[in-house]
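Re: beginner question about structure tokens

> Can someone show what the tokenized structure looks like for a real chain? I only ever see the sequence side.

Sure, here's an example I had lying around. Input first:
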Amino acid sequence: MDPDRRSAWLRKLDEQCPYQVVLPRQQLSDDTDILTFLTLYVGKLDMYVEDEYAAFVRYCFADPLDAASFRSRFEPKERFKFAG
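And the corresponding structure tokens:
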């Protein structure tokens, strides 16, 4: 997707689903728990790979309670540490 189309799509997504949670992508583990949670407990949502290296996934929710429930269940207890 070209940068202009991506920017337009992200702006629209931010309007429709402004409550967002970024998690590290679990490349080598099973994400069944997350997908089950999303299909059973969440209304309107979207998700996309956050960066070009596919290291993070941004989960976007229309309802703040859906985002809070998701965050409390799946967000790591330790904050991300970036090399530097």
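Each token stands for a local structural state, so reading them left to right follows the chain. Residues 3-16 form the longest helix (14 residues).
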